[in-house]
């Protein structure tokens, strides 16, 4: 409601791998992250623009958190030029680094399709160089050089699920490639859901998108 009141069209994609669909697609992402869901979202956005020509196709923006942050950072790098700005909240950026710092090391193994011994304590780093390369290829940081649109990162200092170091890695990678990137840090956890932080995030997202679109924020 907030963003539509500001004049935005809002499209929330329930992409493959979600429990919220009629069919169980949770296993379809295993070993196919950064490909299956990213391509699906991009195809749906393109179809949306065809079905609803009233939407400004020259100002398509992205916003997502956690795995959604992983997805939107891949979209901005895999389809440079199509998306005009991206906001990523506590995004998954570097799977090799995340494996040793997150409280869900098993998620990195499973989603990446890397096998592990379920009877033993998970080792917070892969043992094979081929697996490490696989994680690198899945990671948005690997494509940071291809990003062309401005990026806003919103990170929580108390995030145990996707540690703030993930976003900082991406911030530094984009900076090193001369990209337009902004960083907001909050004293909050993974969800960035405390009332004051949630409100601040929404306000900054709207201001960020409006700056790119070069139009004022308005409330009807």
From TrEMBL:
InterPro entries: Peptidase_S9_cat. It comes from the Eukaryota. Keywords: Hydrolase. Residues 2-213 form the Peptidase S9 prolyl oligopeptidase catalytic domain. One of its GO terms (biological process) is proteolysis. One of its GO terms (molecular function) is serine-type endopeptidase activity. This is Peptidase S9 prolyl oligopeptidase catalytic domain-containing protein. It comes from Allacma fusca.
């Amino acid at each position: 409601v907030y963003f539509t009141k500001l004049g935005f069209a809002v499209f929330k994609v329930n992409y493959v791998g979600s429990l919220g669909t009629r069919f169980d697609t949770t296993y379809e992402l295993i070993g196919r992250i950064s490909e299956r869901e990213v391509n699906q979202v991009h195809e749906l956005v393109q179809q949306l623009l065809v079905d609803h020509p009233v939407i400004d196709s020259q100002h398509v923006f992205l916003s997502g958190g956690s795995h959604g942050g992983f997805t939107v950072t891949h979209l901005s790098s895999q389809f440079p030029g199509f998306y005009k700005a991206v906001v990523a909240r506590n995004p998954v950026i570097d799977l090799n680094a995340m494996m040793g710092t997150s409280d869900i090391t098993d998620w990195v193994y499973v989603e990446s399709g890397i096998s592990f011994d379920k009877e033993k304590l998970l080792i917070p780093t892969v043992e094979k160089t081929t697996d490490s390369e696989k994680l690198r290829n899945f990671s948005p940081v690997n494509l940071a050089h291809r990003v062309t649109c401005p990026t806003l990162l919103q990170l929580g200092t108390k995030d145990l699920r996707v540690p703030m170091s993930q976003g900082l890695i991406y911030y530094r990678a984009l900076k090193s490639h001369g990209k337009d990137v902004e960083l907001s840090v909050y004293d909050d956890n993974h969800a960035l859901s405390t009332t004051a932080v949630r409100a601040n995030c929404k306000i900054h997202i709207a201001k960020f998108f409006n700056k790119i679109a070069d139009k004022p924020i308005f409330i009807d």
